[in-house]
Amino acid sequence: MPAFDVQQFRQQFAFFQQQPEWVYLDNAATMHKPLVVIDAVTQFYQQYNSNVHRGAHQLSQQATILFEQARSTVASYINARHLHEVIFCSGATAALNQIAFGLMHTVLQPGDRILLTQLEHHANIVPWQLHCQRHGVIIDVVPLTADHRIDLVAYEQLLALGPKVVSFSHISNVLGHIQPVAEMVRLAKAAGALTVIDGAQGIVYQQPDMQQLDCDFYVFSGHKLYGPTGIGVLYGKTEQLKHLTPIFAGGEMIDSVSFINTSFNKLPFRLEAGTPNIAGALGLSAAIEWLQKYNNEQLVLHKSLLLKEFYNGLTFIKGIDILSSSVHNAGIVALNVDSEHPADVAELLNQQQIAVRSGQHCAMPLFSYLARPGAIRCSFAAYNTLDDVNRCLLALEQTVEILTA
Amino acid sequence: MTLEQLLADTKPVLLDIQQRDLAEIEQAKDWQAKYRVLMQLGKKLPAIPEKMKQPELLVKGCESRAWLMHYHDKATDKHYFVLDSEARIVKGLMAIMLCLVNGMTTAELCQFDLCHKFDQLNLKPYLSQSRGNGLTAMASRIKQCCK
Ligand SMILES: Cc1ncc(COP(=O)(O)O)c(C=O)c1O
């Protein structure tokens, strides 16, 4: 395989031609989309637009075939056993809400426990909180070690309390740390718990293999995998998806309805109420097919080179407080300028057209643990270049200079 | 520290900002120069003591926390403000807002178009909704004081 050519890769993103002056380092929030994805969405609306699973006409049948092909692309990408194990939804947040809602009273009974970790995104905390409070389910939280990683010793101790469900992120959206998910799933299964993985940040780092990972649920959003917004995936093992009470009802998810009783359609339709985001699914599928033309190891290597350069450059800037560790890091660096508010740092970077996120990144429990008011987050993607890294470093230097003048 | 003291300390600073710093910001050659002034503004204003930063003074809608104290002198019908923020640039921008309205009567405050004035000062970009800096929230909070 030829060496990874970042310019060739980057050229496929019209955004960078439209906005050449910007350094985009907010990839953990959302990624740019290659032309093939934008084309797939446009092409659907221009050539095939029809509703799926319902029309008597050929157009609808064609749209249905494309939509189901998209499901098949996703299923084989994550190596699901069955197509119906891929449920399309609007994103990771929707998927986690469906799982938390859906397990109440089927798997989770009053007095049961579930296990989360200190570094979760609010999307993997609040849905659980909402439903656990109403149903009397207890939430335990795995603490972190001194280097801000999940404390596996404490994890095992908390697993001994017998949680029915364990839910954790594949990669921290703030710190970029890669969690030992395979080990965590193995331990949870040995303790008899169902496992939910929030793969919102993990999906673009690694092609996850559902059969090998053997988790019960894995969720992600298309827009963090070069795909469109408003489409995401809830993967679940067949036998666990059956436990999920649908959070939404109506449309194709129903088999027969009377005012006495309604019986539900089979999977995956039972969990896909209403008209799905058809164009989104096709866009996501196009993103995956496009991405598979590249060797993921090369993309990961490229990102790790950017990261190395960035960490190296940071050591030359005075007063930088780095929260992310450089080892087992997927390409996200959270940092502060000593005793300065992250909002000020982000504003000065913004003036220099460096796009980063600042604040608490939907992870307030993590920040109260870190005892910081927030941080700025630089998140790298495979289309970022060494020039991006250097421009960000220069801008940070200028920022520190202004702030400490 | 009392509100009276804070008001007394804040008033001359806001006046000074209005009379001197605004011109400097307008004349700033580049963004660096503009931001250097903005940061100095934040530093000039007296800080609200921690004890006085009651939750009801928080201006919602900021990524950084900001507090606004308001005093209406009924005898003269004039409005006075005290401000603090965790973030220095935000504090500087908010100070500019305040210096424009500090000491206004109720009628003046009601009529005053903050956004227009910000525009004139070439500061309009900071007012956009999407910026989590809370300036829009601060503007509407100030406006509420004349209700
Ligand atoms: C770890 C993690 N979980 C969940 C989400 C929620 O994703 P979405 O907003 O696409 O539903 C995000 C997005 O920021 C995330 O980073």
Q: Name the CATH class of the largest domain in chain A.
A: Alpha Beta
Number of strands of chain B: 2
Which stretches of chain A are poorly predicted, pLDDT < 50 over at least 5 residues?
none
Count of the domains of chain B? 1
> What is the general shape of chain A?
globular
CA radius of gyration of chain A: 22 Å
The major beta sheet of chain B can be summarized as:
2 strands, antiparallel
Q: Strand fraction band of chain B?
A: 5-15%
CATH architecture assignment of the largest domain in chain A: 3-Layer(aba) Sandwich
Order of helices and strands of chain A: HHEHHEHEHEHEHEHEEHEEHHEEHEEHEH
Ions and ligands = pyridoxal-5'-phosphate
Domain module count of chain A: 2
Order of helices and strands of chain B: HHEEHHHH
Mean pLDDT of chain A, rounded to whole units?
95
The spatial strand order of the largest sheet of chain B comes to: 1-2
CATH architecture of chain B: Alpha-Beta Complex
Would you write up a description of this structure?
The complex is a heterodimer of chains A (405) and B (147). Chain A has 405 residues and is α/β, with parallel strands linked by helices. In chain A, 40% of the residues lie in helices and 15% in strands. Chain A has helices at residues 6-10, 14-18, 35-48, 58-77, 92-103, 126-135, 152-159, 181-190, 210-213, 238-241, 278-291, 296-314, 342-351, 364-370, 386-403; strands spanning 23-24, 86-89, 113-117, 138-142, 165-169, 194-198, 217-221, 232-236, 254-257, 262-264, 320-322, 332-337, 354-355, 357-359, 375-379. In chain A, strands 2-8-7-6-5-3-4 form a 7-stranded mixed beta sheet, sandwiched between helices. A 4-stranded antiparallel beta sheet of chain A has the order 11-12-15-14, with helices on one face. Chain A has a two-stranded parallel ribbon with strand order 1-13. In chain A, helix 6 (126-135) links the parallel strand 3 (113-117) and strand 4 (138-142). In chain A, helix 4 (58-77) crosses helix 11, helix 5 (92-103) packs parallel to helix 6 (126-135) and helix 12 (296-314) runs parallel beside helix 15. The mean pLDDT of chain A is 95. Chain B has 147 residues and is mainly α. Chain B has helices at 3-27, 31-44, 88-101, 106-111, 114-120, 135-144, and strands at residues 66-73, 78-85. In chain B, helix 2 (31-44) crosses helix 3 and helix 3 (88-101) packs parallel to helix 6 (135-144). Classes of the chains: A alpha/beta (405), B mainly alpha (147). Residues 91-93, 121, 123-124, 169, 173, 198, 200-201, 221 of chain A line the site of pyridoxal-5'-phosphate.
